[in-house]
Amino acid sequence: MEYAIEVNNLVKRYKDMLALDHFNMSVKEGEVFGLLGPNGSGKTTTINCILSLLSYDKGDIKVFGKKMTSGSYDLKRDIGVVMQNVAVFDELNVYDNIDYFCGLYIKDKKLRAGYVEEAMEFVDIADYRKFVPKKLSGGLLRRLNIACGIAHKPKLIFFDEPTVAVDPQSRNNILEGIKKLNREGATIVYTSHYMEEVEQLCDRILIMDKGKSVALGTKEELKRMIKNTETITVEIADVTEELLTSIKAVPHVYDVVMRDESVKVYFSGGSHNIIRLMELLKDRDITYGRVYTELPTLNDVFLEITGKELRD
Ligand SMILES: Nc1ncnc2c1ncn2[C@@H]1O[C@H](COP(=O)(O)OP(=O)(O)OP(=O)(O)O)[C@@H](O)[C@H]1O
Ligand SMILES: [Mg+2]
After folding, report:
1. What lines the ligand 1 site, CB under 6 Å?
2. Which ligand is nearest to the CA of 36?
3. How far is Cα 222 from Cα 183, in angstroms, rounded to an integer?
4. pTM of the model
5. Are residues 93 and 116 both part of a single domain?
6. pLDDT tens across 37-84, in order?
7. Structural domain tally of the chain?
8. Which of 14, 27, 249, 283 has CA 20 to 30 A from 205's CA?
């Protein structure tokens, strides 16, 4: 197995604050790896340590099998970073910004000109090439930020919450772009606290909390780690204790919660759960409104493992 990144037992403190607590993470070459965690869980700190932009207290980091240090220029050439906070030059226009960042790695002017055009094409910003950043909308600014990070054709690219405060059209453009970079061979590390994006994009997902890894796997594997397999909600106006008790006795039910004139029934395993539940209501002549079933989400995984919501 070839690893693009190996992080072992990383400890990072900001003064007294323990930001990374013996954190481990391995990213395979060619995968889209999702780093999912609530605000302040340590995602950006992890990236900055991997990039050697931050020093750390303990642990070691390898990139493409080599120890990563602040002087690893050969490795840095192969890495692209799209920072959480847009980092471009206000006084340079779109073209010159991309050209500047690409120029850190690609010295040949003619080759670079081609790369800059490709990067603009890639995020669909070529029409704005003469615009300075403050003339761009939030979504276009994010796209410029991405173009600056990827123009030199890196083999490993970090995207740190690239879709925050972005309109749906730019969001799609960004997500599709990341998939395309991956298809073309780049290994991607994607951080977010939007679990829907991470589910859609990532081959494997690491969920972190308070500087620790709390779960790792494909989205299917993560969902299999928890007890919940299905939640069925039924709108019922008048629920009696007796009804709740009989629902609790349905096979595979492990919890029943009454909320806003609805009953939420939590199942662990079993098939035909909805039919069994409907039959019970019919036998008792219970009038009910809408019925819907939901599969577990990554939020449920996080909730069950940490006891709190992943969502803001
Ligand atoms: N420069 C710093 N000095 C002191 N504390 C910091 C610094 N940078 C981050 N922290 C703290 O370290 C913890 C981890 O922060 P980090 O930015 O890595 O989290 P994150 O998962 O990227 O969060 P977000 O989703 O908000 O971007 C937080 O508690 C944060 O307040
Ligand atoms: Mg962050």
Report:
1. 14, 17, 19, 37, 39-45, 84, 193
2. 1
3. 24
4. 0.89
5. yes
6. 988 999 999 999 999 999 999 999 999 999 999 898 889 999 999 998
7. 2
8. 14
